[in-house]
Amino acid sequence: MDSAELRNPSLRGDDTFRRWFIRFLRLAASPGVLADLLRMNAGLDIRPVLPRIRQPALILHRVGDPWVAVEHARYLAAHIPGARLVELAGIDHWPWIGDADALLDEVERFLTGAPPRAGRRPSLGPEALTRRERDVVRLAAEGHTAPQIGHLLGIGERTVETHLASAYAKLGVASKLELVRRAADLDV
Q1: What pLDDT sits at residue 119?
Q2: What is the DSSP letter of 49?
Q3: Which of 37, 83, 117, 145 has its CB 3.0 to 4.6 Å from that of 57, i.e. a possible disulfide?
Q4: Among 165, 158, 157, 167, which Cα is nearest to 135's?
């Protein structure tokens, strides 16, 4: 089991996501930079500053999160003046895995003070693609490489790769070749 599955149990057995996550980790940081980040994070202690926070604070936490216990969120809420804690159902650590809509609804409610709007974008299929993902997918299906797509759209190659990875997950394809083969069926 890899660290993505440890943090997000609903991903167990999802080989497409596992491959994407491993690629993401390799591109995100070198082993040395990762070690430095882990050391830095382990050395941080923000507890003394929590009572001095004067901005509105929304703390969201899934009660079944296996990576960070819900008690940590409760501690933050108890020590940040006026903080709002929302405990959500679920077992995944990353907000975009599992029931992301419930989490987004709470963010919208917090930011607007109104109930969430209806009609969210679906999470799977061609309708789930953002405008930029659709542009990237169209150019990839036409045979352009990531550097070419980046140049045409004025974005970085890594950003292109991120958009492609997200689009692959939403479209249920595992590679550019599969995307090209299924582009007409997927209406992209």
Answers
A1: 61
A2: G
A3: 83
A4: 167
Report the predicted TM-score, pTM, of the whole model to 2 decimal places: 0.59
> How does pLDDT run across 122-181, given as a tens digit for each residue?
667 778 788 888 888 889 888 899 899 988 988 888 888 888 888 888 888 888 888 788
Backbone angles phi, psi at 82, to 5 degrees: 75, 5
* Best CA proximity match to 157, nearest among 30, 165, 172, 134: 165
CA max distance for the chain = 57
State how far the alpha carbon of 62 is from the alpha carbons of 78, 89, 91, 151, 167, in Å: 17, 5, 6, 40, 26
| CA-based end-to-end distance of the chain | 34
Q: Is 133 exposed, middle or buried (0-12, 13-18, 19+ CB in 10 A)?
A: buried
